[in-house]
Here is the input.
Amino acid sequence: MRWLWFLRGILRTKRGATLSALFRTEAEVMVATAGRVDDTNNEVQGELQRLHGVVDGVRASWVGSAQVSFDGLMQRWNTSAQQLREALQAISDNLRSNAHHFENVEADNAQAFAQVGGDGLAL
Here is the structure.
């Protein structure tokens, strides 16, 4: 049984928090960060749409090859805005997925330690 107390001591931090609590906190931080990335993405996309509206308002002043160049630039703008939106969404999705995976691994580890503690080591 001494090894169990030793193991429990290892699983405590200097402030007395268990690793499980720290992992849970880390997962919560990841989920909160994903939410902030979503908020930032929404703000950026809103600003890009606002700017697109302003710039599109001057489109009529371009004629001929200048208008063709302007249209090409706006197509690149739209493509870049879409890529940025998708990249930020992927970051947010990955953070949430990692948090979920992190919690699952921690739960599996806690269960494994509980089983070892209940049955002892089968050497």
